[in-house]
Write a structure and sequence with these properties.
Number of strands: 6
CATH class: Alpha Beta
Number of helices: 3
CATH superfamily: Lipoprotein like domain
Mean pLDDT: 84
Structural class: alpha/beta
Shape: flat
Length: 175
Amino acid sequence: MRAYAQSPLALAPCVALLLLAVTSCGYSTGLVPPAPARTVGVDFFGNEGQLPDLERDLHRQLVRSLGNLVAAPLADPRRADATIRGRILSTTRRGGVRDPDNRLLESGLHIAVEARLWGPDGPLGPAVRQDTWVGIRLDRLGREAQARERALAQLADSLVLELFANPPGAEVTGE
């Protein structure tokens, strides 16, 4: 008996046909903005917390999260059909663990944010509040910045999921 496909080249036409079929059906993954919005943007958040310039880092994380989770192109917030607007409500440092010599070994940071999805004619849904605590080991320089980035990434993902998971006016299809 002879084997049907002896080389990877014999499978190339099948793989090409499969890729063509998947890309031509209009299938996309990711969350969608509420109808009729097609593009999304992120405004710079206000910052009512104690840490200066935290809104810049949050903006970067929100743009990353939108790109990863939402199936809509990013646009300038002044021209986007749906725009995330919000503010950092608070940032609180937590006292931490100390060694016998009273040196601080670990601390913590709490960040609370509020966001809402806006369209050209007003809000596209309710305001969403998210907050997170992050622990910070202080045994090396730079750990606080890394912990802050982790917290902001988690907050950005949570906000995007909450705002886009079931927005008013979004079509839900089971196909």
